[in-house]
Amino acid sequence: MNWKQFLTPVKSIDTEQAKTYLDGKQVDEVTILDVRQPKEYEAGHIPGSILAPLPELTDHMDRIDRSKPLLVYCASGGRSRVAAQLLSGQGFKNIINMAGGFNAWTSEAAFLGEEKGLALFDGVESVESALTVAYSLEAGLKDFYDTMAAKVDSEPAGKLFRQLSQIEVKHQDRILEQYTEVTGKAASREDFEKGPVPEVLEGGLTTEEYANLLMPSTDTLADIIELAMSIEAQALDLYLRASEKAHSDAGKQALLQIANEEKTHLARLGQLMEETIE
To answer: Which GO terms describe its molecular function (predicted)?
Structure first.
């Protein structure tokens, strides 16, 4: 028996330190490992985290990139500490245990299982197709914000939804730029918009699914921003999961770049929240 796995000291940081650590990284620079059970993961998880339940951890080791730092978490920190020790004993380096676990996590979270929304990327084997799917998801979210702007009675709320809609237009513009950068071809908004706008929003959920999961309120501007942040967190999670399933390295890199854009969008929404609640 390899007793080292039980004796190796494990570095631990709290959830605030973990958020600061992740904020300073690109999405593909660190692996986030969730060692809870599938139902716990579905109820809420850190965007982009890989599910590897502790009882099955050894079966998932081939999925984990040994060259990257590894942030491990569970519900409260107990299982993740054991997992970190086990991983250390198996030769993994630079492992960090998140003390307090997901129960103490107060930042953005994603929902549902690892396969949710991935059907949207079935058959995506090129950069072009990956960016086309991403563009259509942005279009779906823009339409949602436009619809909400027309529905709400409050003028400040309507103005904020219109502002969020324009942010999605900027997201679409960035995808068009990325398309040109990667392919060397001129990107036409008209060509990208020929396809139907999907019923799902960015993040892979329908409007009804978001409503059932998040029970969003539009009573205050902060509520609206919180809804937008939840959707962006779900989108970040979807793009990271889809990148792991990509059929080509070029498609994977395109999805990772979009994921990094989503992370930047989340940070901007956080700044907007700070300005709103002052």
So the answer is: transferase activity
